[in-house]
Amino acid sequence: MKFFPKKLSLKWINQAYDNNELTPYELVDEILKRAEENKDKNIWIVAPSRELMEKYISKLPPRSEDKPLWGIPFAIKDNIDLEGVPTTAACPEYSYMPKKSAFVVQKLIDAGAFPVGKTNLDQFATGLVGTRSPYGEVHNAYDDKMISGGSSSGSAVSVALGMAAFSLGTDTAGSGRVPAMLNTLVGFKPSLGAWSTSGVVPACASLDCVTVFANSLEDTETVNQYAKGYDAECVWSKEYEDKGKKLPEKIYLPLEEPTFFGDNAEVHRAKWYSATERIKKLGVKVEYIDYKMFYDAALILYDGAYVAERWADLKEFVSENEDKVFPVTKKILQSGGTEEKTAARLFEDLHMLQYYRHKAKEILKNAVMVMPTAGGTFTREQVREDPVKTNSLMGLYTNHCNLLDLMAVAVPENTQDKNLPFGITIFGLADSI
Questions:
Q1: Is residue 67 domain-shared with residue 189, that is, in the same domain?
Q2: Distance from C-alpha of 102 to C-alpha of 231, rounded to nearest angstrom
C-alpha cells in the first residue's frame, strides 16, 4: 500500500512526483477515499469526484518547471467560480453556472494545480462559525462537537483532513483566519486587491479578499506567488511592488490582556502567553499598544452604515427568497437596509474609518501587530443556542483588518496541536505583502 501523510504538503507531493513514487491519478484515489471517510463532516457542496479531477489532470503536460504547481490538488470555497460547476454560496436557490473560472482559480489551474471540489461555507460568507449552511454544519477537523470556524469552513477542514494541499477561502471579516486557527492551519489573507475578486460572490465587495489555507507558511507563500496579480477586469484589483523579505523593526503586542472566552478560556489564555513569550525571544523589539483604536474601527463593519454594502449586493435575491435564506443570515443582511443606515451616517463612518486608516499607517510603518486569531471557541450546540453573540466574539480580533486595509497571516501556536487549537495573527500594512 502506498504511503500518504495525513496532511498533504507541496513539498511531499513534489518530492513524490520527482522520485516517481506518485502519480496524480494515485493522489486522486486517496483524495476520494478520504472524502468518503469524512462525508459526515459536511465539508463539501460539490464533493470530490474522479470526473472533475481527471478533467484537469488529463490536460497536464509532462512534468516541467513551466507548471510550478503541477499536479497539486486544491479545494475551492463555493462562493468562488469554477467553470462548469455550480456556484451556490451555500444557498441552493441562488445557484448559477459560471461560464469561466474566477481569475485566481484560473491562474492556479494555469500553473498546474487541479481543483478537487467546492467546499461548504456559512451562507453568503456571512459568519465566522461554520454552522450557517443548508448543506449542514461543518464539523471541526479534530472534534466533531466543536465549530470549524467560518465562513470558509469547508475549505479549512478539507486541508486539515488531507483532501487538498491548499484551499481557497474568502475573507471580509476574518473568514480566512478563524477557520485556520480552529483547524491548526496557516491562513493567509492578502492585501485588498492583491488577489483579484473577479468571479467571487460579493459579501462586502470593497473589503472582500480571496485567501489561502495550507499546512505551512511556505506553502501559502508559494500559492501567493502564483495567485496574486493585477486583473484588468476587477475594479478592486491593485498592483503591489514586491519588496522581498525583511524583519519588521517592531512587533506590537496588546497593552491590555485580550479577552478569552468559552468553556476553555484558560486553555487559550495559557497558549497566548506561551506564544508571546516566544515572540519576545525573536530578537525584534517588542512594544505594547492600546488595541482600542482597532476595536473601535472594527465596530464600523456591522454597527454602522457600512453593513449596507452587504445588503446592496444581495437585497434583490433576499427580498424575493426570504424563506430560502438562513434566519440569522437574513437578519444580518437586512440590517443593512434599515432606515438609520442613511447616506449621511455612511459618510460619517467613512470619515472616521479614514482617520483610523491614517493612524494605522503611522503605527504599523515598518512594524507588525500580533493578536490572538480568536479568543476562544464554542461547541456547535452553543452556537445554535446563541448564534449572534458567539459569532461576534469569534470576530473580536479579526473585523478591523480589511477595514484598515491591512494584510494578515494566521499561524498556529503549535502546529501539532489538535486539542482546542489556538493561533495568533500577524497584521501588517497593505504594501508589506
A1: yes
A2: 11
C-alpha neighbours within 13 Å on the C-beta side of residue 343: 0
Cα separations in angstroms, 55 against 86, 120, 380? 16, 22, 36
Predicted confidence band of residue 331 (pLDDT cuts 50, 70, 90): confident
Domain assignment present for residue 103? The answer is yes
Rounded to whole angstroms, the Cα distance separating 138 from 152 reads 10
Distance CA 360, CA 351 (A): 14
Nearest one of 118, 121, 112 to 82, comparing CA atoms: 118
Give catalytic residue positions: 77, 151, 175
- The C-alpha cell that represents 163 in the structure block: 483532501
Q: Tell me, yes or no, if the pTM score tops 0.90.
A: yes
**Location of C-alpha cell 458567539:** 390
Residue with cell 443570515: 329
CB 64 within 8 A of CB 25: no
Q: Is the pLDDT of residue 1 over 80?
A: no
For residue range 67-124, list pLDDT tens digits in order. 999 999 999 999 999 999 999 999 999 999 999 999 999 999 999 999 999 999 999 9
What is the C-alpha separation between 96 and 89, in angstroms, rounded?
Answer: 10
Domain encompassing residue 60? 10-227
Peptide bond before residue 151 is cis, with ω within 30 degrees of 0: yes
Quick one: 190 and 271 in the same domain?
A: no
Which of 227, 261, 276 is the C-terminal boundary of a domain? Answer: 227
Same structural domain for residues 284 and 136? no
Q: What is the radius of gyration, based on Cα positions, of the chain?
A: 20
Residues 109 and 40 in one domain: yes
For residue 289, CA distances in Å to 192, 229, 257, 322, 408 come to 24, 33, 11, 44, 18
Considering the chain, what is the average pLDDT of its residues? 95
The percentage of the chain sitting over the pLDDT mark of 70, rounded to a whole number, equals 100
Q: Which amino acid is at 120?
A: N
Residue (of 178, 206, 197) closest to 300 by Cα position: 206
Do residues 111 and 220 share a domain?
yes
One domain, residues 131 and 162: yes
Contact by Cβ (8 Å): 184, 412: yes
Same domain? For 331 and 370 the reply is yes
